[in-house]
Design brief:
Elements lengths: L2 H7 L3 H17 L3 E5 L2 E5 L3 E7 L5 E5 L21 E5 L7 H17 L3
Antiparallel strand pairs: 1-2, 2-3, 3-4, 4-5
Helix pairs in contact: 1-2
């Protein structure tokens, strides 16, 4: 079992379900590498693409490292005053707009593949 999988098992209910959903998507479907950094799961291609951050409000925030560079055509990303990263919070798997999230993830992976701008 990986460090990230052990991290996910510390949670229960909706938080664990959201973590498991994204972990499976990133590692199995998109073939990204998982690694525990700063005590939270990060997912990498050539560089760090995104991470999953449990929030105090019982949600999970999906955060993109190059979030400010993403188009945010879907209008879902929230910068929260941060200079580089942007994220989206989810309280349950049911509220994840899967098609729109997949668009954002594909754009983030594309940015990772082309390198720095």
């Amino acid at each position: 079992m990986s460090d990230v999988e052990e991290f996910i098992l510390q949670f229960s209910g909706h938080q664990r379900a959201v973590l498991e959903y994204f972990h499976q998507l990133f590692t199995q479907e998109l073939q990204l590498t998982d690694k525990l950094r700063y005590k939270i799961p990060f997912y990498d291609g050539k560089t760090w693409i995104c991470y999953l951050n449990p929030t105090k409000g019982e949600k999970i925030e999906l955060v993109f490292l190059r979030g400010r560079e993403l188009s945010n055509a879907q209008g879902l990303l929230n910068h929260k005053g941060r200079k580089m990263v942007s994220g989206i919070e989810f309280a349950s798997v049911a509220e994840i707009p899967k098609e729109l999230i997949n668009e954002i993830i594909q754009e983030a992976i594309y940015l990772d593949e082309i390198g720095k701008t």
